[in-house]
Design brief:
92% of the residues lie in helices and 0% in strands. The chain is mostly helical and 64 residues long. It has one domain. It is elongated, with a radius of gyration of 15 Å. 0% of the residues are buried.
Length: 64
């Protein structure tokens, strides 16, 4: 069960999240938004990465 949970986490980090971010980036390029929307996109990207790291840290701390 632990291996399956790790596999799902890796798939989320390496497959689905980059695909989603690429799709959002492509849509933003197509509509030519203003700077605020781009700023929010990059904040969202960093926040998503920090969310994944924080979830991993919490999971490791709970096991100890």
């Amino acid at each position: 069960m632990k291996g399956l949970k790790n596999l799902i986490g890796v798939l989320g980090l390496c497959v689905t999240t980059p695909i989603w971010l690429f799709l959002v980036y492509t849509m933003l390029c197509a509509i030519h938004p203003d700077r605020l929307v781009w700023f929010l996109f990059w904040i969202y990207t960093v926040a998503k990465a920090l969310q994944f790291v924080a979830a991993c840290v919490v999971e490791v701390c709970e096991k100890k």
